[in-house]
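Re: that chain you flagged

S.,

Sorry for the slow reply, it's been a week of failed gels. I finally had a moment to sit down with the sequence you sent. For the record, here it is as I used it:
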Amino acid sequence: MPSTQDIVIRPVPFDHPDSVQLRTTQQAEITAQWGPDYCDLPSAADVAVFLIAYHDGKPVGCGGLRPLSSASENARKSSAEIKRMFVAPAYRGRLGGDDGARTSVAQLILEQLEGESRKRGLPWLLLETGVDMTTARRFYERCGFVQRGMFGKYSLAEASVCYEKWLGGSVS
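Prediction finished late last night. Pasting the structure tokens below so you have them in one place:
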């Protein structure tokens, strides 16, 4: 397993070939385990930031940030939604760190997305995940997200659960 120093995270366009590859792999995994994902699919037009984690030049993880409009049903003002968080199976779990700290590819991506959200003046992060995606749910809870009511197009999604995290700062 690589160390934290071996992982490089870069912003790329949502429709970049590495992004397409990772998102296609993610959707195949979701479909195989839980069925097709029909909820509120992101696009290049609405994802402001898309990050890819690379190990030795190979794309191994990704995540995006979609600013939400105040008109989005039950969304908080000044919020962004985490979209398409995914780490290739071989890169899941803890990484080694030279300073004794241990983290994961997902955590490195999430921390950068949080920073991007703060830079954009969006102190609330929201996300949706599957009710049965217990590993993802535990990850987000460990990272400070708390369960919240459904928002936007997820309002009727029975197999979904939504989370939020306050990053601090002022709400515009």
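What I noticed first: The chain has three helices and nine strands.

Talk soon,
D.
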